[in-house]
Amino acid sequence: MKQSHHRSVLVATLLVVAWCLHVAGPSASAQVVWDAGGDGVNWSDGVNWVGDSTPGGGSSVQFDNTGGLGTTNIVNDAPRTISGLNIRNTSGQHTINLNGSTLSFDTNNRQFRVADSVSGSSLHMYNGTFNLLTNAWFLVGYKAGRVGTLTFGSGTTLLSHQMDYFLVGEDGGQGYVDLSSASGTLSVRNTGYRIEIGGGTSASGTVLLGSVIDTYFGTSASDRTALYVGANYNSSGNTTGTLIKTGGHFEAYMQDSSGYSLSVGNNNSGSGPSTATGLIDLTGTTSGTFSISGSNVRIGRGNGTGTVHLGSGVTASFGVPANPIDFRIAEAFSGGSSAGTLTKSGGEFNAYFGTLYVGYNHDGGGGSASGVLNLTGTTSGVLSNSGSDLRIGAQRDATGTVHLGNGKTVLLGKPGFTSLFVGKTFGTGGTASAGTFTMGSGTMDAYFAQMHVGHNGNSSANSATGYVDLSGVTSGTITNDHNLIGEVWVGYGRNATGTLLLGATADQIGASSSSRTRIRVGDNTDNHSGTLSAGTLTKSGGSFEGWFNEWHVGYNGNTSGNSVNGTMDLSGTTFTANGINSSDTLYFGVGRDATGLVRLPSGNVTAPNMIVGDSDTGTEAGGSGTLDLRGTTFTVSNTGSINTSGNLMGRGTLTAATFIMNGRTTATNGTLTVSYSTFNNTVENPTSGGNGWRAISGGRLDLPLVAVSAGNVSRNWGESSGDTTIDLVNSVRASFTGATAGDWQVSLLAPDHALAQPGLQNVIGLWDINAINGLTFSSVDLTFRYDLELATTLGVSESNLKLFRYDGSQWQLMTGFVLNTTDKHISYAGATGFSQWAIATDLEVIPEPSTVFLLLVGGAIAYRKLRRA
Question: For residue 440, which of 128, 406, 436, 487 is within the disulfide window of CB 3.0 to 4.6 Å?
Answer without folding.
Answer: 406
